[in-house]
Write a structure and sequence with these properties.
Helix content is 29%, strand content 31%. With 302 residues, it is an alpha/beta fold. The strands form three sheets. It has a seven-stranded mixed β-sheet, sandwiched between helices.
Length: 302
Amino acid sequence: MPWLELQLTIDAAEQPRAEAALEDLGALSVTLMDADADTPDEAAIFEPGVGETPLWHSLTLLALFEAERDLRGLVHCLHDALPGLAPERIAFREVADQDWERAWMDRYQPMPFGRRLWIYPWNIEPPKDIDKSTVIVRLDPGLAFGTGTHPTTALCLEWLDGLDPENKTIIDYGCGSGVLAIAALKLGAAHAVGIDNDPQALVASRDNAMRNEVSDRLHVCLPGEPPPGARADVFVANILAGPLGELAPRFASLCKPGASFALSGILAGQEDELLDRYRCCGFTNLRVTRREDWIRIDGMRK
């Protein structure tokens, strides 16, 4: 059956009230997007984590309702929740029913990162004659907490591809889908720890690790419960600049002396403060790599 999609453009400060109002009105789903992005894919690809504030100044909220919902009633309730809401900031359209996960999987194609690493969706088989040196990570796009499509993830994957993680321990802080930890394991790491504040991300990481036959070497946990004595030879964190700054001392304690590390999720212009912060916390040989508007900082623990 078709669905009714409500599109609401608001300032970032209005987001909590608007999202709460849509949920109270019975929205089946609410998606946050960057209203200033050039394409829908670019807009939706980097949403904030649980409890985090969106980076965008202007937001588009897409709320899905059953097709028979009364449009006038929805608009009236939104005006009550958001006084002064201009009519041109609200739009409706009918959305045809479809298999949403299948539609996403059909768009998600194999992607190379660096010299030897490839990310393949679970529904596409690698060619039988693929080079034996190629390292393939298989992901379920239906558990999309990070698939390599965003520049921050791509920067980290390319960095991992340039390392020699043979027999080393990696910590992936903010593991999401587990793509970075699993890639390191497939590249030769002996053991990986994935840490995330979202329990559903840990489920996704475990599922993807099983698909890649590395689940016996991946331990996943919440931030407050890392395994005893876990310290990294390789450390990677792809989250946001604010938490990266706050967690610098914690990250230092999780890294062995001489450990390689990389940080991403950093917007261009945010790197200088983080560079100073990490130098003060005992990291050295710091380098900055940029892709589009996103930054990776990498280096080593003294």
